[in-house]
């Protein structure tokens, strides 16, 4: 499990592609790999991956075809930056909300607004996932726990403060980019339960 509090920015050092599998070598900042063991879980842009090898601060991960299909990891290239979070431990402070690291879908950045001292990002998700997105609800974007601002059909926005921009890759985000989305599990359970009871919330196309 993860908390959605991004612990830092890592850099992709190498990507080795094989049939149905890619191996990523990702360098974490100094002092970020203390206590890491083979088999440990680390969220890379919100995707839970398993450490298969370690060389200093560089961790190696394998991503199978299904993971590459459902997430943005298949587009990663050497030199790119990613958000990372090591798995939560019992007793850790939950500053965001509980995440599984299992990506539901991806979203496209459709607009970036830059009022003074903050940034507003607008995203567009596939229509079938809009049913789980509510104003003031939780959502995880590239592994960061964020609060949803406004919702307009299958589009929604989030408001970011300077610290979030500094501590994550959102500081370099651009229109047209694609991000990983993990829907809040409690929201999904409630919506799906109500749907089974006949109180469905139809997905509202833009």
From TrEMBL:
Its EC number is 2.5.1.9. It is an enzyme of class 2 (transferase). The keyword ATP-binding does not apply. Lumazine-binding repeats lie at residues 1-97, 98-194. The keyword Chloroplast does not apply. It comes from the Bacteria. Keywords: Repeat. Pfam families: Lum_binding. Gene3D superfamilies: 2.40.30.20. Residues 1-97, 98-194 form the Lumazine-binding domain. This is Riboflavin synthase. The lineage of its organism: Bacteria, Pseudomonadati, Pseudomonadota, Gammaproteobacteria, Pseudomonadales.
